[in-house]
Design a protein that fits this description.
The complex is a heterodimer of chains A (216) and B (214). Helix content of chain A is 31%, strand content 34%. Chain A is an alpha+beta fold and 216 residues long. Chain B has an eight-stranded antiparallel barrel with strand order 1-2-3-5-6-7-8-9. The chains are: A alpha+beta (216), B alpha+beta (214). Chain A: Keywords: Membrane, Signal, Transmembrane, Transmembrane helix. Chain A: This is Lipoprotein.
Chain lengths: 216, 214
């Protein structure tokens, strides 16, 4: 969670300065854990130390940020990782990676980034309608070009200004509200698998019964 | 025979399990009914509240069940609006000071007499631009479709809770608790700004209700 808060604040900080281009990719698995990868392109070289100190001073009322858990890499003009003292190395391009364990961590991240009412509990992924597999994904306004991949089928009519890359992936431009519905995979497979398993067990039981009957 | 009976029981158990899997899995569990009206006070967070302290809003939200697990929500909004400011001892105050007083004085006259004040407020419904909204209920939790805000029911308080945010149940349109709270905010404001600073002698604050009978 702290990694996520850090990541979000780092992105917001740069965006607030009005000078960074940020590309994000968010992958959400069927249990709503996932990963957020971001690339930050700054017009001027910045150091990891500057970035981290700015972020920790701007923690938006959240718990202190554990910066040791953040994966932050400086990238050179050749696209390769820059070597050297990680605290002082300066670069115009940074790669950030963070993992979230569940939808609650995503929700906390959202609260930290988008300044939603801290008194209320606000989700990013939450149920939608009467279909038990249908969910809404709502991350607020995109801070940069943002690609989201879910384990399921995105409802085309719900993506607003987003562009559907394929059934499970949608892309939003900076400033667009990230909001869509998707039908989660998994429970229908579990249903069929469970039914098949029981049928197989029943078959085995029947065979055993027939054999025993034949031997009596 | 014993084996046959055992196998028969096993097959029956498997058949029941199959039925449970086919009928139970994938369906939604039992649900909490959130229908009804719920209310809260929205107090401005700005540092300097305006003179009349009329910015508190009482907001009522009515949830109506649409399908097994979906609801629609509608807002109504009320507030105590300033109606009149009664200067009860204006003549006496003017006599002890000067021949005419402009506006409401803030402090004693030359004789040390404080203005005796009696503000009046009236409770009224106010317009809003909130659109009706949709909600989804799942496993006893209610989610607003548009924002993702979630509410759970607190049976001890008979209230809906979302983090630190609480909405009281409003039975038969009775907003007495919320109105009392809003009245207290107004009293506190006048006490702090005019009585504690010895600017006014606050006789009373009158509250009337334009919505009664609605």
């Amino acid at each position: 969670m702290k990694r996520l808060v850090f990541l979000c604040l780092a992105l917001c900080l740069l965006l607030a300065a009005g000078c960074a281009q940020v590309t994000s990719e968010i992958e959400v698995k069927s249990d709503f854990s996932g990963e957020w990868k971001a690339t930050i392109q700054s017009p001027v070289p910045i150091s990891k130390g500057d970035l981290l100190s700015a972020v920790t001073q701007n923690s938006n009322g959240q718990a202190p940020i554990d910066i040791s858990k953040v994966e932050l890499e400086a990238i050179g003009p050749d696209g390769k990782e820059l070597k050297g003292d990680s605290a002082t190395v300066q670069s115009q391009m940074w790669k950030l990676e963070a993992k979230f364990a569940n939808k609650d961590e995503l929700a906390k991240m959202s609260a930290a980034v988008f300044g939603r009412n801290p008194d209320a509990k606000i989700n990013v992924i939450y149920p939608y309608g009467d279909d038990p597999d249908m969910y809404t994904f709502n991350l607020g306004k995109a801070s940069g070009a943002t690609t989201i991949e879910v384990d399921g089928k995105i409802i085309k009519e719900s993506i607003g200004k987003g562009i559907l890359k394929n059934d499970d992936t949608v892309i939003y431009a900076a400033g667009d509200p990230i909001y869509f519905q998707f039908k989660k995979d998994g429970s229908s497979g579990l249903l069929i698998g469970g039914a098949l398993g029981i049928v197989v067990l029943a078959g085995i039981g029947y065979v055993i019964y027939r054999r025993r009957q034949a031997t009596v | 025979m014993k084996t046959k009976r055992q196998v028969t029981y096993m097959l029956m158990a498997l058949a029941m399990a199959l039925m449970l899997v086919l009928s139970g899995c994938g369906s939604l569990g039992s649900s909490q009914d959130f229908s009804g009206t719920w209310g809260y006070i929205e107090t401005p967070t700005m540092k300097d509240v305006n003179y009349e302290y009329s910015s508190d809003k009482i907001i009522l939200v009515t949830f109506e069940k649409k399908t097994d697990h979906t609801y629609t929500g509608n807002f109504r909004q009320y507030r105590y609006a300033p109606k009149k400011m009664n200067f009860l001892n204006m003549d006496e105050y003017e006599r002890g000071d000067r021949w005419m007083v402009f506006g409401i004085p803030n402090g004693p006259n030359r004789q040390g007499l404080l203005p005796k004040m009696e503000p009046e407020y009236t409770f009224k419904e106010i317009g809003h631009d909130f659109e009706p909204f949709n909600l989804t209920e799942r496993d006893g939790v209610l989610y607003i479709d548009e924002s993702g805000t979630e509410y759970t029911y607190d049976s001890q308080k008979d209230a809906l809770v979302s983090g630190k945010f609480v909405m009281q149940r409003i039975k038969d349109g009775d907003m007495t608790n919320l109105k009392n709270e809003a009245q207290q905010h107004i009293r506190d404001y006048f006490q702090k700004k005019y009585v504690d600073t010895k600017k006014w002698d606050l006789v009373d604050i009158k509250f009337t209700d334009e919505t009664s009978g609605q």
